[in-house]
Description:
This protein has 8 helices and 8 strands. It is of the alpha+beta class. The protein is globular. InterPro entries: HTH_bacterioopsin (IPR007050).
Amino acid sequence: MHSALYYLEMGVGGKCSIANASGYSPDSILIQNARIIKGNLNHVILTVAKRESDQVLEVLKGDFRSYETSTLKGNMFVDSYKIGHGMLKAVMNQDVFMLFPIIARNGIENFRLVSRFRADLENIVDKVGRENVVERQIIDRVSISDIISGNILHSASPSLYGLTDREIETLKVAINSGYYEWPRKNGLEEISLDNGASKVTTLYHIRNAEKKIMETLFRKNAR
C-alpha cells in the first residue's frame, strides 16, 4: 500500500477558450466538472460571475458546440459541450485523479492532479505541452492524510489565486513571523524589516493577497 502520493500543479495557456475567457474576467472561472464524450468533444460544467458573463460567454463560444446557462446568487452556470485541447485525453491514459474545481484566471487554467507515480504526472505534462503552453508545473510528494484532510494546497499553490511573487513572499514572512496568530506575535513593523519594505508597502501586498484569495474561494456576488 502506498502511504505517499505525487501531486502536480500545472498552469496551462494556449488554445482553450476557457483560459482565454478568464483573461477578460477579474474573477476566476471555475470548472466544476469535465469529461470526454467522444473524440475531441468534452462535457464541461463551469461557473462565471454573472456581471461579467456576457463578455466571457462570447469568448467561450469559440470552443462551444452547444451550451445551456442558468443563474443562482450572482453566478452563471454553464453546461456545455466543447472542443477539447488535449488535457483530458492526456489524463485518461494515466493512473491519476484530477482535482476539481479547475481554476481559470488571468488567461491560465490551473490543473491539480494526484498519482501514485511521478512518471505518470511527468507524462501528462509532456503530452499537454504538445498542444498547449505549459506556463508552469510543480510536482511534489503529498501524504494520503493531506488529501483526506483537504490540505492538498501546499506552498506552491498560491499561484492558483493569481498572487504575484512579491505577494507570496510577503505572506510567507507574515505567517512565519506569527502575524496571523492570536495573540499576534509580530506586527507590520517586524514583517517590514524582514521583508525589506516599508510598512505601507507590506500592508498593501498583504491586503491584495488576502483579497485575491477570498474572491477566489467565496466568489463575489453580483452588485
